[in-house]
Amino acid sequence: MNILFFGPNGSGKGTQGSILKDKYNTPHIESGAIFRENIGKGTELGAKAKAFIDKGDLVPDEITIPMILDRLQQDDCKNGWLLDGFPRNKTQAIKLDESLKASGMALDIVVEILLDRETAKNRIMGRRLCAKDPNHPNNIYIDAIKPTDDNKCRVCGGELSARGDDQDESAISKRHGIYYDADTGTLAAAYYFRDLAAASSDIKYIELDGTPGVKEVTAELVSKL
Ligand code: AMP
């Protein structure tokens, strides 16, 4: 199963993505997590990406597009993948579409989580990152995924921290500006695939209301798959 996942930062995209990853046993490819891993390891890619990420800007397409398209060609993606955080603009969408077609890879499902900007912002500011596994969902403002009372990861007890770019309101606003831009931004990328899905019975486009709690959104997602 090859799945694309869209949703504004803070919509629960990562949380729902990790549920799907377990259901279909596919690698969960998160562009933001790849950048953070590289920053953590001090790689050249990480050094190039950091300044953009800290400001809430997109890392330039020349860096991001080959990074993700190459990742999709790795062996563990042969039986499916779940792509989250890419494409983030229309150029990336077109390049992804071209690359999938060129390599004979089908796109099966596109998920778009719908959430208003204000709610998404509050959720981002409550998000906490587990030191042991970035896929462990923790958020101090969401009951279903609240950290433990002593502020450790609710899944494994690991140390938690807040991402710097999650606490900076102007960076969040910039990121949301990019997401909600339906002309050239991330919504434009989502709508590019929505149009493809409308023209092809092979691609299923699923819209999910991201306002309810994690469990309700998961139930809606599973019922629509
Ligand atoms: P995320 O974890 O998805 O919120 O991503 C964190 C940051 O990584 C973003 O704010 C961007 O700076 C960068 N990033 C992630 N995905 C992309 C992408 N597809 N294109 C460009 N930059 C990206």
Explain how this protein is built:
This protein is of the alpha/beta class and about 220 residues long. The protein has a single domain (about 1-115, about 180-225), classed as P-loop containing nucleotide triphosphate hydrolases (Rossmann fold). It is built from nine helices and seven strands. It has helices spanning about 15-25, 30-40, 45-55, 60-70, 90-100, 115-125, 170-180, 185-200, 215-225, and strands at about 1-5, 30, 80-85, 110-115, 130, 160, 205-210. The protein has a five-stranded parallel β-sheet, sandwiched between helices. It has a two-stranded antiparallel sheet with strand order 5-6. Helix 2 (about 30-40) packs across helix 3 (about 45-55) and helix 5 packs across helix 8. The protein is globular, with a radius of gyration of 17 Å. Adenosine monophosphate binds near residues 32, 57 and 86.
Q: Could you write a compact summary of the structure shown?
A:
The chain has helices spanning 13-24, 31-41, 44-55, 61-72, 90-102, 117-126, 169-179, 186-199, 214-224; strands at 2-6, 28-30, 81-84, 109-114, 129-130, 160-161, 204-209. It is an alpha/beta fold and 225 residues long. The chain has a single domain (2-116, 181-224), classed as 3-Layer(aba) Sandwich (Rossmann fold), CATH 3.40.50.300.
